[in-house]
């Protein structure tokens, strides 16, 4: 318990409901009592699994990033696959998670502003930094070998995540202004994906 790895049906439900409440309301606006009420247990029962809200947050953060980082690591380092194919698959992983948790991108932005050190410490506690380092080194090796264009890793990161998350961060605006008649938000996101792939491909393509 308390490590982001649910060990029982009740604990898994706690993490699920806490994830929903944290992402929808934010860390500050969500109380342990709120989480207990959504799960249908009392505070004592909740504290059996997670003694503090900070521990609860760590479990939520762990459940999210452990769905992402190992998969992203595996896809990105498939050096024999074309760049556009890898980018497309990485987007699918993120979009699958965002579909289940539409407020997740905004939640992560808020938490980086609220307490970045806490997020960073959680990453180190779960030993996830090794995946991030391996991804960066793998991309740098591809650049150095001439397989993809040399682009500063930080700018590649910022370009990709800006394109990836912008529709979700501005969802209300998109739904009010940009949706075509009869179009759902998920339809618009699906149509946006090829543009993201093309932008990253163009950024990394070796130019003759």
Structure commentary:
There is one protein chain. The chain has 208 residues and is an all-alpha fold. It has helices at 9-25, 32-39, 43-49, 53-76, 83-100, 104-125, 129-144, 153-169, 171-178, 185-204. The termini are far apart. It is built from 10 helices and no strands. The relative contact order is 0.10. One of its GO terms (molecular function) is transcription cis-regulatory region binding.
What is the fold-level CATH name, i.e. the topology of the domain at 60-204?
A: Tetracycline Repressor, domain 2
What is the ordering of alpha helices and beta strands?
Answer: HHHHHHHHHH
Percentage beta strand: under 5%
The low-confidence runs, each spanning 5 or more residues with pLDDT under 50, are 1-6
Taken from the alpha-carbon principal axes, the silhouette is globular
Question: What share of the residues lie within helices?
Answer: over 70%
CATH architecture of the domain at 60-204: Orthogonal Bundle
Distance between the termini: 54 Å
Query: Radius of gyration, Cα only, in angstroms?
Result: 19 Å
How many β-strands, per DSSP?
0
Instruction: Give the helix tally.
Output: 10
Helices and strands in order:
Layout lengths: L8 H17 L6 H8 L3 H7 L3 H24 L6 H18 L3 H22 L3 H16 L8 H17 L1 H8 L6 H20 L4
Helix pairs in contact: 1-2, 1-4, 1-6, 4-5, 4-7, 5-10, 8-10
């Amino acid at each position: 318990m308390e490590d982001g790895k649910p060990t029982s049906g009740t604990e898994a439900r706690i993490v699920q409901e806490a994830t929903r409440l944290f992402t929808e309301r934010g860390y500050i606006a969500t109380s342990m009592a709120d989480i207990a009420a959504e799960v249908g247990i009392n505070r004592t029962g909740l504290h059996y699994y997670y003694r503090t809200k900070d521990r609860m947050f760590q479990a939520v953060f762990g459940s999210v990033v452990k769905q992402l980082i190992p998969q992203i690591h595996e896809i990105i380092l498939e050096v024999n696959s074309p760049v556009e194919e890898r980018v497309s698959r990485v987007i699918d992983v993120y979009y699958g998670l965002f579909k289940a948790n539409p407020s997740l991108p905004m939640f992560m932005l808020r938490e980086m502003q609220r307490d970045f050190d806490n997020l960073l410490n959680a990453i180190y506690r779960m030993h996830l930094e090794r995946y991030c380092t391996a991804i960066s080194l793998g991309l740098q090796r591809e650049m150095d070998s001439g397989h993809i264009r040399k682009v500063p890793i930080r700018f590649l990161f910022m370009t990709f995540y800006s394109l990836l998350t912008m529709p979700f961060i501005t969802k209300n605006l998109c739904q009010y202004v940009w949706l075509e008649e009869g179009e759902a938000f998920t339809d618009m996101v699906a149509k946006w994906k090829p543009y993201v792939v093309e932008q990253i491909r163009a950024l990394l393509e070796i130019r003759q």
